[in-house]
Recover the amino acids of this structure.
């Protein structure tokens, strides 16, 4: 049962990723991206990382996609198609990314991963909150504080950049 | 870990997803669609982190926390990028990369 769900989620991810980078209408590209992010959250649910899946759904699907759609509506005539890309550029893109896929997949298939049988730690919200605020081993207080400063700086920077300049 | 799925399956899917994002970044000319391609790449990397965490080192949660921090940084990056894109649009009325060729100040 889980195998089937995983294959369905991977199919959704791959098909909608291709549609995201190839579709002619930009608003559709944003909606296809939303499907990809939702399917990614589904994979996190299958790994039993419920908090990460919730973060993925709220921050990515709820935040970033809405931000992208707003900026599309502010900067585009949504009925017009995107410019045609010339065939040489498409061929070069397909060749380079195909080479990359071939290289990585051939390396992956020759490598044996030693799957661990150890007991998984609890990924409840309680454990995650403890780990984020602890300063012992496996504690993440320093990156947590750094990212909070980064988010503050981002907020101020984004407001200053997007603000209308008085002439 | 997921029953019946080996780590190779997940890594194959994320590899293809990563290079689809790279393809979009190489071929698209519009700044917002390039930003979407970057989001695809970041998502593929996030799934990789979680898969390595769950299959190889399930006793710790490093991959989980890396993914969480990457999601936070991706949100910050998208916000700043969109502020810059809107500012560019206000100045030159286009967001094609080929039209953006001068630093104004």
């Amino acid at each position: 049962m889980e195998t089937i769900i995983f294959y369905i989620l991977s199919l959704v991810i791959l098909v909608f990723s291709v549609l995201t980078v190839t579709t002619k209408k930009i608003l559709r590209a944003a909606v296809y991206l939303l499907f990809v992010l939702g399917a990614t959250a589904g994979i996190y649910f299958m790994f039993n990382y419920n908090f990460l899946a919730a973060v993925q759904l709220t921050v990515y699907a709820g935040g970033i996609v809405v931000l992208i759609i707003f900026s599309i509506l502010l900067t585009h005539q949504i009925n017009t198609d995107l410019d045609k890309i010339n065939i040489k550029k498409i061929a070069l893109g397909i060749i380079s990314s195909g080479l990359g896929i071939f290289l990585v997949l051939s390396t992956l298939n020759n490598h044996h991963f030693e799957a661990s049988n150890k007991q998984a730690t609890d990924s409840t919200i309680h454990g995650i909150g403890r780990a984020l605020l602890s300063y012992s081993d496996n504690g993440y207080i320093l990156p947590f504080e750094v990212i909070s400063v980064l988010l503050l700086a981002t907020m101020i920077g984004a407001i200053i950049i997007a603000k209308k300049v008085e002439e | 870990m997921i029953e019946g799925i080996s780590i190779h399956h997940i890594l194959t899917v994320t590899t293809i997803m990563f290079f689809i994002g790279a393809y979009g970044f190489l071929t698209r000319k519009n700044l917002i669609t390039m930003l979407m391609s970057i989001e695809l790449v970041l998502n593929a990397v996030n799934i990789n982190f979680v898969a390595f965490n769950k299959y190889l080192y399930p006793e710790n949660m490093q991959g989980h926390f890396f993914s969480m921090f990457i999601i936070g940084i991706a949100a910050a990056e998208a916000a700043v990028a969109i502020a810059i894109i809107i500012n560019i649009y206000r100045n030159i009325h286009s967001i094609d990369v080929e039209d953006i060729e001068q630093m104004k100040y």
